[in-house]
Design a protein that fits this description.
This protein is an all-beta fold. About 0% of the residues lie in helices and about 55% in strands. The protein has no helices and eleven strands. The strands form two sheets. Strands 2, 4, 5, 6, 9, 10 and 11 form a seven-stranded mixed beta sheet that branches. Strands 1-3-8-7 form a four-stranded antiparallel beta sheet, with no helix packed on it. It is globular, with a radius of gyration of 13 Å.
């Protein structure tokens, strides 16, 4: 089992930056993909960014590409989401997630952290 704990959310203004952190524990992540999802009120959860823990693959949702960056720290077993030039439409609960490389869906989830961007 992989345990994920997010931190770093908060309330900011249009154009500001935030960095979300996800601390992972429980299993080695060598064969995992890590991701950040978000869910805004009344909307479906959407994949914002993902990466292969061992490197060589990243994905970004079109609306965040160029503004958000997913990264990892192997020594700390952590994943980050650097969010720059935040917009009100980025307001959502952000979730860290993990899956084994052979799994079809993300099956390990953090509790979520709220990001609110005001205009």
């Amino acid at each position: 089992q992989v345990q994920l704990v997010e931190s770093g959310g908060g309330s900011v203004y249009n154009g500001d930056s935030l960095r979300l952190s996800c601390a992972a524990s429980g299993l080695p992540l060598n064969n995992h993909y890590m991701a950040w999802f978000r869910q805004a009120p009344g909307k479906q959860r959407e994949l914002v960014a993902s990466m292969r823990w061992s490197g060589g693959f990243t994905y970004y949702l079109g609306s965040v590409r160029g503004r958000f960056t997913i990264s990892s720290d192997y020594a700390k077993n952590a994943v980050y989401l650097q969010m720059n030039s935040l917009k009100p439409e980025d307001t959502a609960v952000y979730y860290c997630a993990a899956r084994e490389s052979t799994a079809a869906r993300y099956n390990f989830w953090g509790q979520g952290t709220q990001v609110t961007v005001s205009s």
